[in-house]
Amino acid sequence: MVALGHASTSPLTLTEILLFCAAASRGTASAFLIGDLPMGSYESSDVQAVDSAVRMVKEGGVESVKLEGGRDMAGRVAAIARAGIPVLAHVGLTPQRQSALGGFRVQGKTAAGAVDVLRDALAVQEAGAWGVVLEAVPEEVAGLITRRLSVPTVGIGAGKECSGQVLVQMDMAGNFPPGRYLPKFVKRYGDVWSEASKAIGEYKREVKERSYPEKEHTYEMKQEEFEKFRELAESVL
């Protein structure tokens, strides 16, 4: 969504996700790589979910897949887990369903809403998920759910009581243009966009001034070879 400039995660296809996963897989030798199943790749049936997960492993090079949904997707979690592929579940704010949720809104802000998130988390754990992403839920709710589960939780906008944390790399590194909306939970640890823009601007200036490339950036040819080339070039039509 962020890297390709989409307003939501919904337009992403399995083919696109596979390209990203394969690139990430080539760049690591030891990380436990998790690929996010995109909207439309697992909802229709257990068969579709397993087929998509298998492609993620075989073509994307991941060790695990993640999918969004709680009690309603517990069957998909179980089917993929039975196929021998580790599953990370995702409850609370589920970005692929943000339209049905009224937008990117915090979930579990009421007692009843928090119980729903807890029930979703327990259901996917029971279905075989090795962990649960908790997105955009109050810190107290995430803490209680984490203590109730026997599997780890990964928080994103869910406070520090989760077992681990996740942020979008482009968000946390500041690799986006000025004025872009950022969720409340995003902390920017760098300013990659400004540094990249500065570098590109300097490059443009030096090219126009012809101060780049300098001698140190060019390849040399022996003078006698160049003289021979110049003579030969006269006869080349």
Index terms:
six-stranded parallel sheet; TIM Barrel; 8 helices; 41% helix; 237 residues; elongated; 2 domains; alpha/beta
Structure, described:
With 237 residues, this protein is an alpha/beta fold. It has 2 domains: 14-190, TIM Barrel (Alpha-Beta Barrel); 195-234, no CATH class. Helix content is 41%, strand content 11%. It has 8 helices and 6 strands. The protein has helices at residues 14-26, 46-58, 74-82, 111-127, 139-148, 169-172, 192-209, 223-234; strands at residues 34-36, 64-68, 87-92, 131-135, 153-156, 164-165. A 6-stranded parallel beta sheet has the order 1-2-3-4-5-6. Helix 2 crosses helix 3 and helix 3 (74-82) runs parallel beside helix 4 (111-127). The longest helix is centred in the last third of the chain and has 18 residues, at 192-209. It starts with 13 loop residues before the first helix and ends with a helix. 30% of the residues are buried. The mean pLDDT is 94.
